[in-house]
Amino acid sequence: MNDRNDSAEDTLDREILVSRIFDAPRELVWEAWTNPKHVERWWGPVGFTTTTEERDFKVGGIWKHVMRGPDGQEYPNKSVFTEIVKYQRIVYSHSGGRKGDPEIQFVSTWTFVDVGGKTRLTIRQLFKSAEERNHVVKNYGAIEGGKQTLERLSAYLKQMENHK
Question: What does the alpha-carbon distance between residue 134 and residue 140 come to, in Å, rounded to a whole number?
């Protein structure tokens, strides 16, 4: 599935979009995303922790991690990086979900745009079907989870700025 070949009108019912502007330079936001020691500190919704089992940040590289919810539920995840454009874009094919549930698959595109020294970060998750997208929104709270993840990133970026 190549999301670049799909027009926006063809994919609206299959995608989740979450975006936020951070009061931080694009290079710092990129560092928070690409450095495993940073990403585990903010990845996931409020109350979640993330443990990286494997991470090879290059095209074709794999990122295996387990997210744990506040209730102790585990969410094993595997992503394969398909495109990396430094300071601009990260694309990966994702599979994972709640332990014991059917696997969820989507293509995730993260874009990093400089807006006058601040950074607009946009997450686009493209699913194979509207049903899969709706399942993730209803059963996993994916839209709110995305917003919470970016809120956690915002707080973490402030910590990074203060420790420079």
Answer: 10
CA distance 108 to 127: 9
- Count of structural domains within the chain: 1
Full-model pTM: 0.90
First to last CA, the chain: 40
- The encoded tokens of residue 91 equal 């694309």
d(CA 37, CA 24): 19
pLDDT in tens, 106-147: 999 999 999 999 999 999 999 999 999 999 999 899 999 999
Structural domain harbouring 48: 17-162
Neighbours of 98 (CB within 10 A): 16
